[in-house]
Specification:
alpha+beta; five-stranded antiparallel β-sheet; about 150 residues; 5 strands
């Protein structure tokens, strides 16, 4: 009798573990909204990305880039960064929030949904994972964009 009870408990525990693993897999895939496909930045959105890297948008200067999103037409973008005065004490999920704000703004103008282009200093479009160092020059960034067909 005791052996049968242990077998049932083992079966139930395996079921729960499998369910949790499947749930975690589905959640991580549903939150993954990295961009893909053809993308062309306008000059204003390219400059918006440069501001994102520098962290000098909106009255605050300096900081750590958190997330940058853009629509595939390259006409609408949005970003979040962490101002220096906050140190590492900034919001989590900034890339997703940037994507949501960008999508709302894009759709108001008749555009398409936005996707995450960069997380921190790493470009994640088309799973390229291009790390942009802090001291990368404007010309070097322009070259990366040109090589990938994102900006001429």
């Amino acid at each position: 009798y005791l052996h049968a009870a242990r077998d049932k408990i083992d079966l139930i525990m395996r079921f729960i573990l499998k369910t949790i693993l499947i749930f975690c897999f589905l959640i991580s895939n549903s939150n993954s909204k990295d961009g893909y496909g053809d993308l062309k930045f306008t000059s204003s959105n390219f400059n918006h990305f440069i501001q994102y890297l520098k962290g000098d948008g909106d009255l605050m200067s300096g900081g750590k880039p958190l997330g940058f999103a853009i629509n595939q037409a390259g006409t609408q973008s949005w970003y979040y960064y962490c101002p220096k005065k906050f140190g590492d004490n900034c919001m989590t999920g900034a890339a997703m929030q940037a994507q949501n704000k960008c999508t709302i703004a894009s759709k108001k103008k008749g555009g398409e949904r936005c996707f995450v282009f960069a997380k921190g200093r790493t470009i994640v479009w088309d799973k390229k994972y291009i790390k942009i160092k802090r001291k990368t020059t404007y010309e070097e960034i322009k070259k990366i964009f040109s090589e990938n067909g994102w900006y001429n």
